[in-house]
Amino acid sequence: MSKKDDPKKNESAEICPAQSLLKLLSGKYKPEIFSLAIQAPLRFSNLLRQIEGSNKQSLSTALRELEEVGILKKVVIKEKPLHIEYYLTEKAESLIPIFKQLEGF
Questions:
Q1: What is the domain extent for residue 63?
Q2: Which of 7, 13, 15, 90 has the greatest number of beta carbons closer than 10 A?
Q3: Which of 3, 49, 53 is nearest to 28 (CA)?
Q4: Helix (H, G, I), strand (E, B), or coil: what is residue 34?
Q5: So what's the pLDDT on residue 105?
Q6: Residue 6: inside a domain, yes or no?
Q7: What is the pLDDT at residue 10?
Q8: CA–CA separation, 21 and 101 (whole Å)
Q9: What is the pLDDT along the chain (105 residues), one digit of tens a residue?
């Protein structure tokens, strides 16, 4: 089978940016986290207060998964008290216009 005939390769080449974004943000709390990250850097304790119904385990899982796919980057702030902030990556910033269009529906 040639590369041209590989259905997986053709399938990934045909995915539109909106589909890619939806796939990246599928899961509990991920769209809310992305939306809040557009506005400002994120802190875990603030997210717990801002996202209604969230819990520590689900939120930490969502943050880790967003970090793994390159949407968020984790930065340890070495000031006292020591804390962690999450920022959008360049990849994520390029997806903001698509996200804004999807929010309008």
A1: 41-105
A2: 15
A3: 53
A4: helix
A5: 67
A6: no
A7: 45
A8: 12
A9: 444 454 444 444 556 777 888 888 988 999 999 999 999 999 999 999 999 999 999 999 999 999 999 999 999 999 888 899 999 999 999 989 988 888 776
Count of structural domains, the chain: 1
Work out the burial of residue 39: count CB atoms within 10 Å of its CB; fewer than 13 is exposed, 13-18 middle, 19 or more buried: exposed
Q: Which helix (H) or strand (E) holds 75?
A: strand 72-77
**Cα(1)–Cα(89) distance, integer angstroms:** 37
50 in any annotated domain = yes
pTM over 0.90: no
Sequence letter at residue 37: A
Distance CA 66, CA 62 (A): 6
Q: Which of 43, 67, 50, 48 is nearest to 58 (CA)?
A: 48
